[in-house]
Specification:
By secondary structure, the chain is α/β, with parallel strands linked by helices. The chain is built from 18 helices and 23 strands. Helix content is 35%, strand content 22%. Bound molecules: glutamine.
């Protein structure tokens, strides 16, 4: 029988609940347990696929092609386990499914209510992950305790506690202790109030994970324990980590969080095996040098918009014991015809995925600069499309070459809509999504990186390289180094007479893990390191 852990958050958002839930997952795995992770988001969107990166950060795509919350990226990176459509649920999805059942008449004329119909649907989503081979299901509830939208989720997880027995269910509440400078101390009142809110619903937390900027004193711990009704040893401090988020599992393990969980569930397992994790953290904390990578994108001011990308770059750096300084360079800075000074100082340039017109000319200019000057270049999704446009214009002489996404009237549509995409009406969940196989060309930089001739990577796009232009691009030396197995889709291109110029139609960053850096990111950073010297 599977056990259930629920992670809730209080006081403020952006506490790093996803990282904490993922870290708990890592600790359980290091104890030899088989786990599943689940994110429940109380907002009404059916999935985050249509949400702006400005509002919601990156959209993370699973192997089975679902557009999900970026926390699933943390889950995969920390636990090494792939997530799936079962791992991400929103209120919108729950209501959608309940209302469809109602329309079908599945409820046999009953009045449909929050309790039990919505809560039952939520519970069935949690239990769907408790397959026979699973020991623990870790569920993170998005949002903050006290949000109106989150109430049904909290009610549902309270019911699970009753139904499964409190020995089989654990509630871990994450809170924030503000440091009030004038008083010179950390304040516990907001935490007390958020726990009071939880208790009102009938949930008594078993563990309190406290984010703070400074260490918790013994006094503060006692106060939290007393007022929040949590045993003293279960008041866990999660102080802002200094170097990397991958320290969090170690910080929690030091305070015995995995042991607290084992005792609560009465599970006998040997101590946590965290050796490889510690070695990886050590490589990140003690780098031998720094590689500078310029990311030429549209959302330059947003950390969360390129979450997986930034992590993958850091993993690639750690593979060489290098830290990676990621410099966001606004694509528009290249549009004046000048190369911005900061771009000249980079050891490598990367153009990430994106949508829409803004910044594309700048991205194309940045790619030209990298190609003509032997600067290691990595293009991802829109980055590949821009690289093909750049090659078509400046090497093949196809003036005005473009993607029909940006210029529908272009004389040379070197990037165009896939046939099946032309019929699409709804924007949600209708792109080419999820994992697709790709065959690599022997002897290419791609094949060298992967050390394989067939790979699988995740996609999220509508447009593709136009096959009509393949002969012209190849005649001028562009190598189509990755194709779909039927040969119809260009998935990777590279410029062979260049230190490292690789572009991919998929999103390799989604599969990079700190313990298993992605081969393309590893080799891109390797090439940048060589250039730096
Ligand atoms: N806008 C492009 C497309 O839809 C690229 C998408 C992306 O970079 N994720 O094909």
């Amino acid at each position: 029988m599977a056990k259930f852990i629920f992670v809730t958050g209080g006081v403020v958002s952006s506490l790093g609940k996803g990282i904490t839930a993922a870290s708990i997952g890592r600790l359980l795995i290091s104890r030899g347990l088989r786990i599943r992770m689940l994110k429940m988001d109380p907002y009404l969107n059916v999935d985050p696929g249509t949400m702006s990166p400005y509002q919601h950060g990156e959209v993370y795509v699973t192997d089975d092609g679902v557009e999900t919350d970026l926390d699933l990226g943390h889950y995969e990176r920390f636990t090494g386990q792939p997530t799936s459509r079962k791992s991400s649920v929103t209120s919108g999805r729950i209501y959608w499914d309940v209302l469809q059942k109602e329309r079908r008449g599945d409820y046999l004329g009953h009045t449909i209510q929050m309790i039990p119909h919505i809560t039952d649907e939520i519970k069935s989503r949690v239990r769907a992950l408790a397959e026979p081979e699973v020991d623990v299901v870790v569920t993170e509830i998005g949002g903050t305790v006290g949000d109106i939208e989150g109430l049904t989720f909290l009610e549902a997880i309270r019911q699970i506690g009753l139904e499964e027995g409190r020995d089989n269910v654990m509630y871990i509440h994450m809170t924030y202790l503000p440091f009030i400078r004038a008083a010179g101390e950390l304040k516990t009142k907001p935490s007390q109030q958020s726990v009071a809110k939880l208790r009102e619903i009938g949930i008594i937390p078993d563990v309190l994970v406290c984010r703070s900027e400074t260490p918790l004193t013994e006094d503060i711990r006692r106060k939290l324990s007393l007022f929040c009704n949590v045993p003293l040893h279960a008041v866990i401090e999660e102080i802002d980590v200094r170097h990397t988020i991958y320290e969090v599992p170690l910080v929690l393990a030091e305070q015995g969080l995995d042991e607290i969980i084992m005792v609560h569930f009465r599970l006998a397992r040997p101590g946590a095996k965290l050796g490889p994790w510690k070695t990886m953290v050590d490589a990140i904390v003690h780098p031998e040098g720094t590689v500078k990578i310029g990311v030429v994108g549209k959302y330059s001011e947003l950390q969360d918009a390129y979450k997986s990308l930034h992590e993958a770059l850091r993993h690639g750096g750690a593979a060489h014991r290098q830290s990676v300084q990621i410099v966001q360079i606004s694509a528009e800075a290249f549009e004046s015809g000048q190369i911005p000074d900061e771009a000249r100082q980079m050891d490598g340039l990367l153009v990430p995925g994106g949508f829409g017109k803004r910044g594309t000319e700048g991205k194309i200019a940045a790619i030209r600069y990298a190609r003509e000057n032997g600067i290691p270049f990595f293009g991802i999704c829109l980055g590949l499309q821009c690289a093909v446009i750049e090659y078509a214009r400046h090497v093949c002489g196809l003036e005005g070459a473009h993607s029909t996404e940006i210029d529908p009237a272009t004389p040379h549509p070197v990037v165009c809509l896939m046939e099946e995409q032309e019929k699409v009406v709804d924007l949600g969940g209708s792109m080419r999504l999820g994992a697709w196989p790709c065959v690599l060309r022997k002897g290419s930089a791609a094949a060298r990186a992967y050390g394989a001739d067939q790979i699988s990577e995740r996609h999220r796009h509508r447009y593709e390289v136009n096959n009509r232009y393949r002969p012209q691009l190849e005649a001028k030396g562009l190598v189509l180094s990755g194709l779909s197995p039927d040969g119809h889709l260009v998935e990777m291109v590279e410029v062979p007479a260049h230190p490292w110029f690789v572009a991919v139609q998929f999103h390799p960053e989604l599969k990079s893990q700190p313990l298993l850096p992605h081969p393309l990111f590893r080799d891109f950073i390797g090439a940048a390191l060589k250039r730096r010297g």
